[in-house]
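Students often ask why inverse folding is considered easier than folding. One informal answer: many sequences map to the same fold, so there is more than one right answer. In these notes we will look at a single instance of the problem. The structure comes first.
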């Protein structure tokens, strides 16, 4: 009955674990949820008010497919101010979330046999979006000892005549690590030499710590800008995951193709959410440093507590809101009759034994790690890590 395409596609594993944890919470189980991939802050009031006003004003009809001009202009201003990037309206598309922009890019650029380089560990949707378009994900392994940055020689070793694009995600989900200017320059050089497109997912750009300043690879020069499609959105920076507004900036031929694809699938992103997005981008920005300071407190606490657990080692993340500790030392150990031999065994053990939800690294292509989101309160972090510590102490 189902197409080959439908049979080959997996549901998003992070959303699946979140759903399982939420179901246990609804059933009355006291779960500490480190599985979530969204800020636990409320959308700021000025943004909500702009949406309410849009409804009252009757701004409730179809809009141009790729977004209304005032929103495109606000995005153009944002890219200029934050990223030193200059685009015109026809180089911008607004989609129903950054994930939707990424999907449109995959449809516009990838076809049968095309190879797409994806540094691993990776965000869960990249490989599946490639596969949905009959193209081939090619994983570029990255190492903890390099802070999970893709090494030039490893990238080059995977390049063939069929290589079409490189997907870059900094700050990264799941590792929480960030690319510095030198690493970006090396990737840009490779992309230009091999004529690859760079898809740069910058959704966590506002969430960086320890003085790290996000740089867009597209800002490194006009040549690399021409080969880059910058993807960003409002979900993470403005706590707007449910509003579904994301955008992409790039060459106008690509943006036009993406807009045509969008015109045959979703049409415009919600008119009301577009009005809210304008307010988010051009209104007061004081919400961001407040949210960031709170994430930073939690990050410091979580990382030091995790590293105090014997058998768990965690790099200090410089961006996003995830910790990605190495748990390989725990594999091979047992508690009662249960033996832990993978990240999913460990995740299930922690859910059942410690009542703590998190995501197995295998979902991101790295079985030696687990991912914890610190988009939860300090109290919950303390309670959750204590539970993990107790459960892990039972493994021998
Ligand atoms: C959350 C997330 C997205 C998608 O964000 P939406 O705008 O809500 O679709 C894209 N990329 C990464 C790496 C993410 O973590």
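Output (designed amino acids):
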């Amino acid at each position: 009955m189902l197409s080959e395409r439908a049979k080959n596609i997996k549901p998003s594993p992070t959303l699946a674990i979140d759903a399982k944890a939420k179901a246990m919470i609804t059933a009355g189980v006291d779960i500490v949820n480190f599985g979530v991939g969204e800020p636990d802050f409320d959308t700021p009031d000025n943004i909500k008010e702009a949406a309410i006003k849009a409804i009252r004003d009757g701004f409730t009809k179809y809009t141009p497919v790729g977004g209304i001009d005032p929103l495109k202009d606000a995005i153009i201003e944002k890219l200029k101010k934050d990223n030193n990037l200059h685009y015109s309206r026809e180089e911008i598309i607004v989609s129903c979330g950054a994930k939707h922009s990424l999907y449109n890019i995959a449809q516009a650029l990838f076809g049968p046999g095309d190879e797409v380089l994806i540094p691993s560990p990776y965000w869960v949707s990249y490989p599946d979006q490639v596969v949905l378009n009959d193209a081939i994900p090619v994983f570029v392994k990255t190492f903890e000892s390099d802070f999970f940055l893709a090494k030039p020689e490893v990238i080059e070793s995977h390049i063939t005549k069929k290589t079409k694009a490189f997907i870059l995600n900094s700050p990264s989900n799941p590792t929480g690590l960030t690319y510095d200017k030198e690493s970006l320059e090396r990737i840009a050089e490779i992309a230009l030499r091999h004529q690859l497109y760079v898809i740069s997912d910058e959704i966590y750009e506002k969430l960086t710590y320890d003085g790290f300043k996000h740089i867009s690879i597209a800002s490194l020069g006009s040549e690399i800008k021409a080969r880059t499609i910058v993807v960003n959105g409002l979900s993470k920076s403005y706590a707007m995951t449910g509003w579904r507004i994301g955008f992409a900036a790039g060459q106008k031929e690509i943006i036009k193709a993406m807009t045509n694809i969008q015109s045959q699938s979703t049409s415009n992103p919600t008119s009301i959410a577009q009005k809210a997005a304008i307010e988010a981008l051009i209104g007061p920005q004081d919400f961001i440093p407040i949210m960031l300071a709170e994430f930073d407190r939690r990050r410091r606490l979580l990382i030091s507590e995790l590293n105090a657990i014997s058998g768990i080692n965690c790099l200090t993340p410089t961006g996003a809101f995830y910790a990605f500790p190495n748990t390989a030392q725990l594999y091979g150990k047992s508690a009662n009759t249960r033996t832990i031999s993978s990240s999913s065994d460990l995740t299930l053990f922690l859910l059942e034994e410690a009542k703590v939800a998190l995501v197995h690294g295998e979902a991101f292509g790295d079985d030696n790690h687990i991912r914890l989101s610190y988009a939860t309160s300090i109290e919950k972090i303390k309670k959750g890590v204590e539970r993990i510590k107790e459960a892990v102490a039972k493994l021998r």
